[in-house]
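Entry for the shared binder. Reason: the reviewer on the internal report wants the predicted structure included alongside the sequence.
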Amino acid sequence: MSRPRKTPTELRSFRWFGKDDLRSSGHRSRAKQAGFTPGDLDGKPVIAILNTWSDANPCHTHFRLRAEEVKRGVWQAGGFPMEIPLMTLGETFMKPTTMLYRNLLAMQAEEALRAYPADGAVLLGGCDKTVPALLMGATSANIPSIFVPAGPMLRGNWRGQPLGSGSDVWKYWTERRAGTIDECTWREMEDGIARSFGTCMTMGTASTMAAAVDALGITLPGASSIPAADSAHVRMAVDAGRRIVEMVWEDLKPRDILTTEAFENAVTAAMALGGSTNAIIHLIAMAGRAGAALDLDRFDALSRRTPFIANIRPSGKYLMEDFYYAGGLRGALDRLRDLLHTDCLTVNGRTLGDNIAGAFVGNDDVIAARETPIGPEGGVAVLRGNLAPDGAVIKHTAADPRLLNHAGPAVVFKNYNDLEARIDDPALPVTAESVLVLQDAGPLGAPGMPEWGMLPIPKKLLAQGVRDMVRISDARMSGTSYGACVLHVAPESFAGGPLAFVRDGDIIELDVPGRRLSLRVAEDELNRRRAGWTPREVAYPRGFGHMYARHITQANRGCDFDFLEGTAPIAEPEIH
């Protein structure tokens, strides 16, 4: 269905550049100061290119070039590009965690789009938290927007073996701690595991979120699967620059696309891919900005009915390049067609069903057929019980199956420093049947909910051949990680959730098929422990951390700021 087209005088930027008044004259003069002529700008949509390039983010090294390629497309389509740099969230270098700053980038994106003369936006992101942050900000600003994902890096390589970023780091670091590989071998792996710009080439958080926003319809079809170093990625960036200009004339905005049904498509895609547990937090936060309905229970219901079909690490064998060559996300979605809302609108003006029509799958070992899925249900399960009244999650496709029904005594670490100090102590009272518990690692307790949830296995157990055990925390886990790790326990321990009251030796029962996480402690004993608990303040006396501590929501609500949730309109800025 065609949409009414805007006229030049209806553009937001007309208020800055188009009027015959002193203020507009000053704006035009400053454009000339930058070397532009009236013909470059007159009556053209201004396209803000929100760029998260930084030397501190190696995954985004190519965004300097991609921004220029987006500009080429904008110029070709008759628009006026305006690149605006925002803070980057470099997953590998930023401490204590990029999650602490996701909402800050979201605020930057929203306010930049509102404050500048932007008619539309191209969002350049990819490294984990940049994806939800940019989409959250653009959704709240609600001007026409299109996302350009960074794309996965090339396959890693070591002695002829393909390496997957993150996943093989955890795997081989465990072996180094166990003494089965030496430092020289480890350095060889360091040299070969990250061979190009781009995000992790496993189905970690970056690839999961890119696929989710692709399924949401906010990228060009299939954009999420293209390797960062492939020339198709350049062409996609140029195409996005061209398309955003048309989106402005059509007035096609994020909330026209990001419906409840679109979010269900995104969840279905993430579950079928064995995607990151982090997607749950981010998609719930994104849905809250769009006014869409999405909660933990809906995640679990969609996961239960969605087959696991992507054989990609850490839940499978292959890497993102293999996925792209096998047919990519379009191929995978075509195999899920009956589970999708195919009539959802996307940024190219067509429906999701139109966009996946004619997709192919060239390798059934990478993208499994529906008749022979890798697993009968999606990659993430939502757990509830007296230890997690508001929910917890586990990526059960990446865990040892024997641990999905397990009961064992708790070994409790009161915080991450305690964990580091004691985990390899030969005197630690731990066996393979124990349940490792980490407290104070949630949104407030850490703070920022770092990726500490893949607790290391004690060295003395590694020496016995143990490579997985049940681990529970209110932290997150890298999407590239694996193991029987229960995460996002809500409410968190720092806020007085039941996790705070677990003691060494308490029996904890994990029942993934039954979706239960239970602490076998009598209620009156839990009440006694609760009565002796003393609340604490987050140690941020000023600055962003101070604001964060007072407004962050718990994991089951997406860890957004309470004052950023919802779709309440904010007036356009006055131009005087």
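Summary line for the report: Residues 157-192 form one domain.
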